[in-house]
Automatic annotation (TrEMBL):
<protein>
    <recommendedName>
        <fullName>Amidinotransferase</fullName>
    </recommendedName>
</protein>
<dbReference type="GO" id="GO:0016403">
    <property type="term" value="F:dimethylargininase activity"/>
</dbReference>
<keyword id="KW-0378">Hydrolase</keyword>
<feature type="active site" description="Nucleophile">
    <location>
        <position position="267"/>
    </location>
</feature>
<dbReference type="InterPro" id="IPR033199">
    <property type="entry name" value="DDAH-like"/>
</dbReference>
<feature type="active site" description="Proton donor">
    <location>
        <position position="173"/>
    </location>
</feature>
<comment type="similarity">
    <text>Belongs to the DDAH family.</text>
</comment>
<dbReference type="GO" id="GO:0006525">
    <property type="term" value="P:arginine metabolic process"/>
</dbReference>
<dbReference type="GO" id="GO:0045429">
    <property type="term" value="P:positive regulation of nitric oxide biosynthetic process"/>
</dbReference>
<dbReference type="GO" id="GO:0000052">
    <property type="term" value="P:citrulline metabolic process"/>
</dbReference>
<dbReference type="GO" id="GO:0016597">
    <property type="term" value="F:amino acid binding"/>
</dbReference>
Amino acid sequence: MGSTVVPVRVASVRRFLMCRPTYFAVEYAINPWMDPARPVDPMLAVGQWEALRGVLLRLGHAVDLIDPVPGLPDMVFAANGAIVLDGKALVARFRHPQRAPESGAYEKWFRDRGYEVRCAERWNEGEGDHLAVAGMLLAGHGFRTAASSHAETTGHLGRPVVGLTLIDPRFYHLDTALAVLDDEQIMYWPGAFSPASRRRLHSLFPHALRVEEHDAVRFGLNAISDGRHVLLPTPATSLAGRLAAEGYEPIALDVSELAKAGGGPKCCTLQL
């Protein structure tokens, strides 16, 4: 009988931007997970965020911080603030007015540090809907980011964009439905995508890890991977097992308080 060879996974050092959830709250509902009537523990949210940051630092990654702004409770979800590649930053234009002022804070942060900055003119929610892999940008659209923004993204960042249509409102950002595991590999839940987008993903990534819905709805795909370690929410237990069988090292994190606003580990980090 043959035996399955488990690949040796190699981590690469990353740099992330994060925003402390000092003003975190669920004060409005702009996705199906948010319920302002559901109690939120801000101190617990800060503790969970600190634990995530601590794990990233222990793994050898760098974490920069942007100051939180009063009145912007979702600013903790730094992934939505911009797309950053090769010293260029395309700052988000948010679909919902509640988050629109975040753009100014992120624009200032990047300009002050010498990035080549452009502000999106069409709806574009940053890395929440744009994931870099295999020399391209996978771009989710249908809820928060407009398909018409793709030309602008390519023009500023110089990467080809592969549009993917999201069809399930529970998975309103690409990073809730798909995660990049390494330079060439992804995992995703097919049910979040239109039939044409599923075919496109299958063609581009025939050996991708297809995740079950029960792990997807636990934000299992809102994960951070450095090529070896995969940080994902604690409830996504079966996905963690599958990742371990593929040679990755899953690290479970309790982000239950942040999940009340529809976010997980990936939402809290913007890769620089």
